[in-house]
């Protein structure tokens, strides 16, 4: 028996940008809400037994995009995160176009033990 999945997607028809979240079929029935913020950022809210979980999918503008596009992305990201209740679990997935390097500045547990820049 093959498992079935449901795709929650948001993007542009030009296929330049887009984000999505695949959810296994039985779990898809537990989706309470979907927020499609823009073609680079969306989230779904799931009810899982005794907790509510927000799963975010984000695609930060890559090198070569304007500073305005990057600033708008991070403003939408920050605004959205700030609206989520502290009682909800948040899982962030996607491509945030970050850097991995030597510095950790005391955030070893945040970067998975890896640092950023030099």
TrEMBL record:
In terms of domain of life, where is this protein from?
Eukaryota
Query: Which residues lie in coiled coils?
Result: none
Q: What is this protein called?
A: Endonuclease/exonuclease/phosphatase domain-containing protein
Q: What is the scientific name of the source organism? A: Helobdella robusta (Californian leech)
**What high-level taxonomic lineage is stated for the organism?**
Eukaryota, Metazoa, Spiralia, Lophotrochozoa, Annelida
